[in-house]
Amino acid sequence: MINELSVQELQVWANQQTIFLIDVREPAEYATGHIKGSNLMPLSQLNNYRNQIPHDLPVVVVCRSGQRSSMAAQWLASNGWNNIYNTRGGMLAWSKAGLPEER
């Protein structure tokens, strides 16, 4: 099952607990602004990173709008990961909420 987090929930989680945050956008998108501590793993190459994604932490996935991260979350679930969260609204919602971004 894929859970969803709002960007506000993600910000709280990122500050209070250990999570593994995956940004599945492309490098050029990531460079325009990303969440501190996120791991760039483009959706098109996600399988190449499978050995770097922990099974013992909550895995949160983010993209631009929530579409690609939803696909990535489904892929993770079908490949043995549990405790997966999709970020509702993606970086568009993060930016709209005025939350901090790194460049």
TrEMBL record:
Gene3D superfamilies on file: Rhodanese-like domain
Every Rhodanese domain range: 15-103
Source organism, top-level taxon: Bacteria
One Pfam family, short name: Rhodanese
Stored InterPro entries: GlpE_sulfurtransferase, Rhodanese-like_dom, Rhodanese-like_dom_sf
Designated name of the protein: Rhodanese domain protein
